[in-house]
Amino acid sequence: MSAQGSIGGVCPPAFEGVREVFQRSFDNDEETGARFTFLVEGQVFVDLWGGFADKSHTRDFDELTLTPVFSSSKAVAAFLIARLIDAGKLSYDQTVASVWPEFAQAGKAEITVAQALSHQAGLPGLTEPMDAAEWFDWDAICARVAAMAPMWPPGTASGYAPGLFGFVAGEIFRRVDGRTMGTALREDIAEPFGLDLSMGLPDSELARLAEVERPRSLPNFGKMNEARKAAFMTRWAAPGGARSPDAWRKAEFPSANIHATSEALARLAGALANDGMLDGVRLLTPETIGEASRERIAGPDQVLPYDVSWAAGFLRNPPNMFYGPSQTAFGHSGWGGSCIFADPENRVSAAYVMNRQSPELIGDRRAVALINAAYEALL
């Protein structure tokens, strides 16, 4: 094996430019291990993997490697909420408090499900000091969220909620469905369709887990404000404490704790790109996909240092165009580089995973280069 590991997978001659981009990231020492999967009409066109799953370069990163995808998980959570909408059990226009009465506290009674999912609720992070280990107590965090006052008037701006999004979406889901999101994902999606992804990771899968290398520099958060501080910069902004990281790996955090292959993520996104169909089974109607993916708010985000367009839990492609050339593409990116997206216009879905994180919050250049190369070959 070379010092960079070997490149494997599927890449037809017409998509050779994708392989070249993938290889170049390893040649330029920008990757340790990675995988990129690109589907058209639900069929795999490109599926490349390579490098190493660990920092010591003793395990190959291959088609069985599982990678934590951090905030790319939010697209899966949004997909699960859309399934409740599709079943008529929930509406984007109803208030969160209608299914979670405690959420009405501190001026939040009129916040809708759509506003909460599109980061308009004014809840980017927890403002009251706490032990970071409390993140592992689902009910305690939900109680804190329910009691918290919005940091700005709901509906007037977006402010990305890196951790709390998952508790809000997850508690809405639990109140309506009766199960946790992780359980529903396993029972309704992952196991029936053979998708190699889970919300949290059991010990039985530990041998397949990629070892993450943290960014070598800090993200550019832009000018600090109270919303960004609450989201990212307090001592309790992310799960921690003596039980972490093993507890983190096992827990269900719908915002950030999906462990998956890029093939599984791309196949799931394929349902969003193909009128709700996955392997001949309808998971969503086109109408619900349209409602889930339409713009709910756009403009400068209070937390992310970007102008963004938010759908109901999904990051829309314009104005940044991280997910190819389509104005209607949507998905989500994860801290350090991962991404998942669907493009209904071209019936394309794709995902990128890796274990060496970059400092980019969204729009990692490795992923963008792979996506653009794939579209250049396709269109």
Kindly list the characteristics that best describe this protein.
7-stranded antiparallel β-sheet, 3-stranded antiparallel β-sheet, 379 residues, 16% strand, single chain
CATH homologous superfamily label: DD-peptidase/beta-lactamase superfamily
- Could you give the order of strands across the largest sheet? 1-3-2-14-13-12-11
Strand/helix succession: EHEEEHHHHHEHHEHEEHEEEEEEH
Provide mean pLDDT, rounded. 95
CATH topology: Beta-lactamase
* C-alpha end-to-end distance: 35 Å
Give me the Rg, rounded: 19 Å
Q: What can be said about the biggest beta sheet?
A: 7 strands, antiparallel
Tally of alpha and pi helices: 11
Q: Helix proportion of residues, in percent?
A: 25-40%
Give the name of the CATH architecture.
Answer: 3-Layer(aba) Sandwich
Count every beta strand, where a strand is a DSSP E run of 2 or more residues.
14
Percentage of residues in strands: 15-25%
The CATH class, by name, is Alpha Beta
Describe this structure in words.
The structure is a single chain. The chain has 379 residues and is α+β, with helices and mostly antiparallel strands. It has one domain: Beta-lactamase (3-Layer(aba) Sandwich), CATH 3.40.710. Helices cover 30% and strands 16% of the residues. It is built from 11 helices and 14 strands. It has helices at 16-27, 73-86, 113-117, 138-147, 164-177, 181-193, 226-233, 246-250, 262-273, 286-293, 365-378, and strands spanning 7-10, 33-40, 43-51, 67-68, 197-199, 258-260, 277-278, 281-282, 297-300, 307-310, 315-316, 330-333, 339-343, 348-354. The protein has a 7-stranded antiparallel sheet, sandwiched between helices. It is globular and about 60 Å long.
